[in-house]
Write a structure and sequence with these properties.
Elements (H helix, E strand, L loop, with lengths): L1 E12 L6 E12 L3 E5 L6 H8 L7 E6 L2 E2 L5 H10 L1 E5 L10 H11 L4 H14 L15 H13 L5 E5 L7 H16 L3 E5 L3 H4 L4 E6 L2 E7 L2
Parallel strand pairs: 3-8, 3-9, 6-7, 7-8
Antiparallel strand pairs: 1-2, 1-4, 4-5, 9-10
Helix pairs in contact: 3-4, 3-5, 4-5, 5-6
This protein binds adenosine-5'-diphosphate and magnesium ion.
Magnesium ion (MG) binds next to helix 1.
Amino acid sequence: MTVVEARGVSRVFPMPAGPVVAVRDVSLRVDAGDYVALCGPSGCGKSTLLHLLGCVDGPTSGTLFFEEHDVATLGDRERSGIRLRRIGFVFQRFFLLPMLSAAENVALPLAEAGVPKPERDARTSELLRYVGLSARADHRPSQLSGGEMQRVAIARALANRPRLLLADEPTGELDQATGEQIAELLGRVNADGTALVIVTHDPAFARRAGRVLTMRDGTIAAEERHR
Ligand SMILES: Nc1ncnc2c1ncn2[C@@H]1O[C@H](COP(=O)(O)OP(=O)(O)O)[C@@H](O)[C@H]1O
Ligand SMILES: [Mg+2]
């Protein structure tokens, strides 16, 4: 089953000095359980493409389907519902809320989705256990290591059991050993059934994916399959 599909999608940013074509006529399908890595030099359009796949941004031309729905035909509420319940996002800089504990950060999307408190608490504990951080539930982000912060961010992204997890350079701020642990955790997330699209500059990380797409100047210049 298709989770997300881009058909001839472009994203042009109008700028005073002239339009910037960040993504140019990209077609890409991500099926349930897929693991896709996006690589390529800085500025080639990886983050822009990830935002399109995540329904955070809309294409200037072409069509984006999320679970068979043309995203352009959906209303704001349906689109934010998809972002909240069907898609998880992980960023290079974690983006945890500094005043909240690890557990409270993880529980945020559950609260937003209207999950009742007892169920929310149970799910939060389960998620912290899944990422190996049960002992850090009450720590604020400033009381966590970089790798721990990224684990909390991954737990938060998984809170509502998304079909698709998007990660933009999730190991970019971490040392190599910690980065490998995060790559391993994301591999487990995929093995447990969530489709994954990751952006990475690390070839060892990219090799874990079933498909490696290399972007250049907004297009997919090469595709490599590993399984
Ligand atoms: N919001 C924006 N407004 C204008 N230009 C942008 C915007 N976002 C990205 N770009 C431009 O689009 C191109 C692709 O950016 P990006 O997708 O962030 O690349 P990558 O993630 O591969 O480094 C770059 O040239 C960048 O300057
Ligand atoms: Mg980027």
